[in-house]
């Protein structure tokens, strides 16, 4: 940095006050906080009613929380002048809308810092409130409202969406009330290999009508652009997609298909455990000890694991577990095939074999066969449209679980949806592209410009 060009230290520029139309006139640094005294750069001497030039009357101090300097909360003490025009007797104050909204407690610079902390650094709202020296309710209400305005309500958020995924998510774990939401994600970046999946929306409830209503609220041109809908085995989502998106290809994603087979293998193990021993599995029981080995891909098994399964299947009472395990392994092998075409052939053969008659003892296999046969077209469509997997929703759900843990739970669904949309990394590139310029100025949101004198 020997060739770097330095300039005179300037508190106004350092605190980002010039972007807010302020200039620093003093400072007061204590162990608890930093107070920056400043004044409005542009005079506002012309009457807002008649346009004539008025005279100064007095000065008042407006205090706003600003982006913190280091670990100290920063407060802006703005000297705002009041003017009066003698003829019409109108009194007005200097326009400070560039600094903050009327009656706001946080400056636009502070809001920009808070949004960046939540979107990029995943800060908790309590940490944001502490850094801004405001109450939690003030920080939560103001920051979420700003995030809703400049990020969530952006019309560009739904642009160029051609692949969507739909699934359910438990937003709270209580016995009473509706605890599920329907999650819609944008899988287009995954299929085009240009980024992670993006969270589009979360709607209260999980039913055919919930998803159908959400699709009906979208613009017809947007619905026409959706070419693929990835979903799990819930028929309600399939029916809603077929009704509102008849041109789209319905794909039952690989994550949930393999999960169906894994669940069948797990249920068969638990059922045989009860039938043979009359109780739940314990540490020394062979079936219980092999519970994780049964769900491991055959090519990934160690010699010890292979020996454990060989001993397990040698018992006559475990034939049902073995048959269900083989179905699960054939399904895993199909999705791990070297090419989509080969995988499609293997899975088609598996579905065809499952249409045959099975003994009544293979309860789980027969139930799985019924589901796979009904949704065969959707399941096989995955191999023609790689990247349309709802496994991305599980990744987003993991981040939302972390959010709910850091917030110690949510009682308000609207707050949870807003925080989830900001937390899921979809706005990180949008924010970083706009952070060089204060994108939340009044001019950027269509507000009227400050008063100018009449001519």
Question: Which features does this protein show?
Answer:
455 residues, 10 strands, five-stranded mixed sheet, 43% helix, single chain, elongated, Nucleotidyltransferase, domain 5, alpha/beta
Can you characterise this structure?
- The protein is of the alpha/beta class and 455 residues long.
- It is built from 18 helices and ten strands.
- It has helices at residues 11-14, 108-119, 125-132, 136-152, 188-191, 208-217, 220-225, 235-244, 254-277, 286-289, 303-314, 319-335, 340-354, 363-374, 376-381, 391-406, 413-423, 428-434; strands at 22-29, 34-40, 55-69, 72-85, 90-93, 163-170, 180-186, 198-204, 228-231, 249-252.
- Strands 1, 2, 3, 4 and 5 form a five-stranded mixed β-sheet that branches. A five-stranded mixed β-sheet has the order 8-7-6-9-10, sandwiched between helices.
- Helix 3 (125-132) crosses helix 4.
Task: Please work out how many helical segments DSSP would assign.
Answer: 18
**Silhouette:** elongated
Domain module count: 4
| Average pLDDT figure | 86
Cα end-to-end separation: 51 Å
Cα-based radius of gyration, to the nearest Å: 30 Å
Low-confidence runs (pLDDT<50, min 5 residues)? Answer: 435-455
What structural class do the secondary elements suggest?
A: alpha/beta
Spell the H/E element sequence. Answer: HEEEEEHHHEEHEHHEHEHHHHHHHHHH
Portion of residues in beta strands equals: 15-25%
**Helical content band:** 40-55%
Specify the biggest β-sheet. 5 strands, mixed
The count of strands amounts to 10
């Amino acid at each position: 940095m020997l060739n770097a060009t330095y300039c005179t230290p300037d508190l106004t520029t350092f605190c980002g006050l010039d972007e807010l139309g302020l200039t620093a006139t003093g400072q007061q640094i204590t162990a608890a906080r930093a107070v920056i005294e400043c004044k409005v750069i542009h005079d506002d001497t012309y009457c807002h009613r008649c346009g004539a030039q008025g005279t100064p009357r007095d000065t008042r101090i407006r205090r706003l929380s600003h982006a913190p300097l280091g670990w100290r909360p920063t407060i802006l003490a703005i000297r705002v002048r009041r003017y009066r025009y003698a003829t019409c007797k109108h009194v007005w104050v200097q326009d400070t809308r560039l600094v903050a909204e009327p009656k706001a407690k946080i400056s636009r610079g502070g809001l920009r810092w808070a949004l960046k902390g939540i979107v990029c650094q995943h800060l908790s709202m309590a940490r944001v409130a502490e850094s801004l020296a405001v109450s939690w309710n003030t920080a939560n209400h103001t920051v979420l409202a700003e995030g809703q305005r400049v990020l969530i309500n952006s019309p560009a958020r739904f642009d160029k969406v051609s692949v969507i995924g739909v699934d359910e998510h438990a937003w709270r774990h209580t016995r009473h009330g509706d605890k599920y939401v329907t999650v819609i994600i944008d899988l287009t970046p995954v299929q085009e290999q240009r980024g992670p999946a993006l969270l589009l929306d979360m709607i209260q409830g999980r039913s055919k009508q919930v998803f159908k209503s959400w699709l009906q609220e979208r613009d017809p041109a947007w619905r026409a652009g959706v070419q693929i809908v990835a979903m799990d085995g819930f028929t309600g989502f399939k029916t809603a997609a077929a009704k509102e998106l008849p041109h789209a290809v319905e794909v039952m994603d690989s994550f949930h298909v393999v999960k169906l087979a894994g669940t069948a293998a797990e249920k068969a193990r638990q059922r045989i455990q009860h039938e043979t021993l009359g109780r739940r599995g314990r540490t020394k029981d062979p079936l219980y000890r092999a519970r994780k080995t049964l769900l491991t891909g055959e090519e990934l098994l160690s010699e010890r694991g292979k020996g454990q399964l060989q001993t397990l299947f040698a018992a006559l009472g475990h034939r049902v577990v073995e048959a269900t395990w083989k179905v699960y392994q054939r399904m895993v092998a199909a999705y791990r095939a070297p090419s989509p075409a080969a995988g499609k052939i293997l899975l088609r053969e598996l579905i065809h074999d499952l249409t045959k008659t099975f003994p009544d003892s293979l309860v789980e296999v027969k139930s799985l066969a019924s589901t796979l046969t009904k949704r065969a077209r959707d399941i096989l469509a995955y191999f023609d449209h790689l990247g349309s997997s709802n496994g991305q929703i599980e990744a987003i759900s993991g981040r939302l679980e972390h959010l709910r843990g850091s917030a110690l739970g949510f009682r308000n669904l609207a707050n949870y949806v807003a925080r989830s949309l900001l937390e899921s990394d979809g706005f990180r590139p949008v924010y970083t592209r706009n952070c060089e310029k204060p994108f939340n100025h009044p001019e950027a949101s269509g507000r009227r410009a400050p008063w100018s004198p009449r001519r």
